[in-house]
Each structure stands twice: as structure tokens, then as C-alpha cells.
């Protein structure tokens, strides 16, 4: 399986996926930490994370897959939502909570 196929499988296998530096319990950068906090505040209980620091091949190829240069990267229902700033803006508007509740099994 190629790295791009591996990324595709991660994105398609989980309703909410965050590619980040570190883990949800131990984020390794401020932007990743902020994204996890925002997702939890928005009600994400089924948050699947991928630590790009442990997977250098994913870290190198994800920007090509998503056409997004930075981390973290949030995908909901297989669609790139964006990074920390966009996640924050969607949270402020209430849109992120709606997207999360639609993505997760009730």
C-alpha cells in the first residue's frame, strides 16, 4: 500500500480525523493542542488522530494529498476542513459543532 493510499484509508475509515504533531493526550505543538481542545469543546468523542511525528512518510506526503501545507489537518467525512485557524473560526461560528454531530454516531 502506498503512503497516499494509507492516508486515504485513514481519512475514509474514521468520521473525524486529525493529522497532528503528537497525540491528543500529548500534543507536540501549540496549533495541534489548540485543535484538539477545540474539537473536544465542539463535542468530538470519536476523534481519531494520526501523529505525523511518528510517521515521517505521512508527514511528507499529506500536504500533497490534501493540498494543504501545514499541520494539524482536520478531515470530517473524508473532506479536508483545514488547519487550526479554520477549525477555530468554525468553532466560534457554531458550525464545527454541527459538523461534528453530523459526523459522529449518535
Automatic annotation (TrEMBL):
Residues given in the record as [2Fe-2S] cluster binding sites: 29
InterPro entries registered for this protein in UniProt: Glutaredoxin, GRX_PICOT-like, Monothiol_GRX, Monothiol_GRX-rel, Thioredoxin-like_sf
Domain Glutaredoxin: 16-81
Recorded GO MF terms: 2 iron, 2 sulfur cluster binding; disulfide oxidoreductase activity; metal ion binding
Sorted UniProt keywords: 2Fe-2S, Iron, Iron-sulfur, Metal-binding, Redox-active center
Stated family: Belongs to the glutaredoxin family. Monothiol subfamily.
Protein name: Glutaredoxin
Amino acid at each position: 500500500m502506498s503512503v497516499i493510499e494509507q492516508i486515504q484509508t485513514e481519512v475514509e475509515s474514521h468520521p473525524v480525523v486529525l493529522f497532528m504533531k503528537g497525540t491528543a493526550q500529548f500534543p507536540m505543538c501549540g496549533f495541534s493542542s489548540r485543535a484538539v481542545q477545540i474539537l473536544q469543546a465542539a463535542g468530538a468523542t470519536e476523534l481519531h488522530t494520526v501523529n505525523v511525528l511518528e510517521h515521517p512518510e505521512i508527514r511528507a506526503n499529506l500536504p500533497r494529498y490534501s493540498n494543504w501545507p501545514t499541520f494539524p489537518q482536520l478531515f470530517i467525512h473524508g473532506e479536508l476542513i483545514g488547519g487550526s485557524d479554520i477549525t477555530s473560526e468554525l468553532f466560534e461560528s457554531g458550525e464545527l459543532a454541527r459538523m461534528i454531530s453530523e459526523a459522529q454516531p449518535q
